[in-house]
Amino acid sequence: MYIVDLILLFISMLILIICVLVGVAFLTLMERKVLGYIQIRKGPNKVGFMGLLQPFSDAIKLFVKEQTFPFMSNFNVYYLSPMVNLSISLMLWLCMPFFSVLLSFNLSVLFFLSVSSLSVYTLMLAGWSSNSNYSLLGSLRAVAQTISYEVSLALIFMSFLFLILSMNMLEFMKVQKYIWLMFLMFPLSMMWIISGLAETNRTPFDFAEGESELVSGFNVEYSSGGFALIFMAEYASILFMSMICVLIFLGGGVFSFIFFLKLVFVSFFWIWVRGTLPRFRYDKLMHLAWKSFLPSSLNYLLFFFNFKMSIFILLL
User: Fold this and answer.
1) Which keywords appear in this protein's UniProt record, sorted alphabetically (predicted)?
2) Half-sphere exposure (CA, 13 Å, Cβ side) for 188?
């Protein structure tokens, strides 16, 4: 029986990862279409019906291209960094509440925070191992940005955790049966979305890939398959952050079709922001993280802690 359970668990994980990768493929298509319409053009519409096969042709093109690598690079680290980056992005999905339970364990929130902080190392190693000044500068900026926003992200999450008093993601669904947490914690929800944009290195916080000043940032020396893996890791993280947003303050409901519609809407919001807002200045990004979000999230954390404590005292 134990072996059968393990086999079913492995199959469930495989199905989840395949679905995420297909979702990533169509998210890239959606992004190109939405950005196209924002800029009053069509976007990809030649390959297949309305461009539906475009992501697959892009993937084939990228993986078939010749893999180049810098002569002076630290080859092993340079080669492995994109693979580890994608693996971490896919590992994050294992804490998602799943219909067949999967790894929906009681400490899934801790798993999410621990695994998401590992992606910093792959960015740093990818930039350093290329042995290029531009990629090193890009990776340093990306690492500083990610670490800065991880602090506020964790503190905001702790405020939500004080309300549900559990480390299990499933509890968010039960708590939001009658009212979404977005209405109860609107400022924190907005701060979470902005921190999520910064965490995934997206516009207006895409300093890791500021083309105008850094020539594509930490991935400047990557081509073909390596570049594709970094690209896929970024979009898998975007989908995951969208899923977390829906789960913690948009009502959750993982077992209904509406959950996936909400997920598509939040992913669309990520793209919409990219098509609308210009890039921040780097010092403003750091100012926002350390002088706005950090004090605000700490104050909210103290507020919700005292709120919970007063309820307990009243009940006693």
Assistant:
1) Membrane, Mitochondrion, Mitochondrion inner membrane, NAD, Transmembrane, Transmembrane helix, Transport, Ubiquinone
2) 27
- Rounded to whole angstroms, the Cα distance separating 248 from 177 reads 12
| 277 neighbors 221 (Cβ within 8 angstroms) | no
Q: What are the tens digits of pLDDT across the range 89-146?
A: 988 888 887 766 676 677 888 888 888 888 888 888 888 888 888 888 888 888 888 8
Secondary structure class of 101 (helix, strand, coil): strand
Q: pLDDT per residue over 177-230, tens digit each? A: 888 888 888 888 899 999 888 888 887 777 766 655 556 777 777 888 888 898
Helices (H), the chain: 2-38, 54-64, 75-92, 108-129, 133-164, 170-175, 181-184, 186-199, 211-214, 224-249, 257-276, 282-287, 294-315
Q: Which two tokens stand for residue 217?
A: 């940032």
pTM: 0.89
End-to-end alpha carbon distance in the chain:
45
Residues 273 and 279: their CA atoms lie apart, in Å, by: 11
> What is the DSSP secondary-structure string of 107-145?
THHHHHHHHHHHHHHHHHHHHHHTT-HHHHHHHHHHHHH
Residue 131 backbone zone (phi > 0: left; psi -120 to 50: alpha; other: beta):
left
